[in-house]
Amino acid sequence: MELTFYLKKIIEVMVIGITVAALTTPLSIRLAYKFDIIDRPRDGRRVHNRPIPRFGGMGIFVGSMAAMLIPATMNSNIRIAMVGGLLMYLLGVLDDIKDLKPMIKFAGQTVIAAGMYAMGIRIRFINNSLLAVSHGSNAVIWLGAGIGFIITVLWIVGITNAVNLMDGLDGLAAGTVAIMSLSLAYVAYIHGIRLGMMPVCVALCAVAAGCLGFLPYNFSPAKTFMGDGGALYLGYMIAVLSVISPLKRATTVGALIPMLVLAVPIFDTAFAMLRRVLKNESIMKADKAHLHHHLMAAGFGQRRSVLIIYGIVGIMGIVAVLISRDLYKDAFFLAMIAVLYLGIIIVPKQPKKNFKSIITADPEAVQKEAFAMMLNAERERRKREHAQRAHNGQSEHEEQTGEQEEQTEQETDGEL
Question: Which one of 25, 180, 280, 358 is most buried, counting C-beta atoms within 10 A?
């Protein structure tokens, strides 16, 4: 009966979240035009070429919050998370309107994350996978107050910004967060009754529902963008809900589960920071070398690039589910497939001299280099064809000349 009860709640949450988000998003578009919250293509980093409203995060926020009222009655930490979600959304909206400096936005995120820790949402321990092999699932490392505070704040702020960085193509952030939320929700569902994770499962479904209701307006060609309001809210909610959930107790290496589900945005963020450090640039500097930019430079276009990243995120979600069920070998080989695909995306078509040149390669520069090489190859091919035609033409001319001379000789002999 308890399982049936939660299944009904999941269905209710999905219906409410999708419906409210789908109905609210058109209103957000009208408000964006009224208050001039428009994303205009003012630099080369943007991939769109026309002004587009960027207040669509309102649909995600209202839809998921309306649906989350159901699990909020089951768990006090979810109510606390909703307060932080409201603050993070308002911070993002302020950035959409005023275009805040990166350090001010980062400081605001840090304050909100610290507030969540103070209100009881915190990482208290992590599993030690090496000890767990010999000592079982209780092999955990308990964190002191200071270390726990630092790790909790870094996790919330880091994942929040990782999702924000992914919001670079139509439908990318909304779709990937929906996949990640549903993956975590399924893990929570598998172990939910035994570990008391069902309220978190329902809350994660609420986040996914808000994304799914918004996605038809955001998938390429987008009618609206979620803006920083939507991106920061989604990153914050998935980070906080993974902390609330006792996923770490689901398996001996369960602490890895949220990291596996969020592996693609974590990798993209870490790769971006490493790239900027190697180029002696600020890690806060925006660029055009994220995963989706590499795919665009390779000529896949927006829709196919987004679908490729959906696939990789989905693979990592399945890896997390397998890990939660102690199917480590299956998870390992599937994870290697995802790593292979990431490597194919990152490594340039043309070989580079060293690791640093691969990391710091500009996708557009690589694309131009490949295009130049293609043009040179085409020029060489045309030169060879021209030379061959000229040679064939000369041979044909000599053959015709020989035939004419022979015919002339025969006519001369005939006259004689």
Answer: 180
8 Å CB contact between 334 and 321? no
Q: Kindly report, residue by residue over 322-343, the tens digit of the pLDDT.
A: 888 878 889 899 999 998 888 8
Q: Which residue segment(s) compose the domain that 234 sits in?
A: 15-257
Q: How many domains does the chain divide into?
A: 2
pLDDT one-digit tens code per residue, 212-239 = 999 999 998 889 999 999 999 999 999 9
Rounded to two decimals, the pTM is 0.80
Please indicate, yes or no, whether residues 239 and 383 belong to a single structural domain of this protein: no
- List CB contacts of 74: < 8 A, sequence separation 6 or more: 198, 199, 202
Residues 77 and 215 in one domain: yes
Q: What is the dihedral of CA 295, 237, 338, 323, to 10 degrees?
A: 180
Residues 54 and 227 sit within 8 Å (Cβ to Cβ): yes
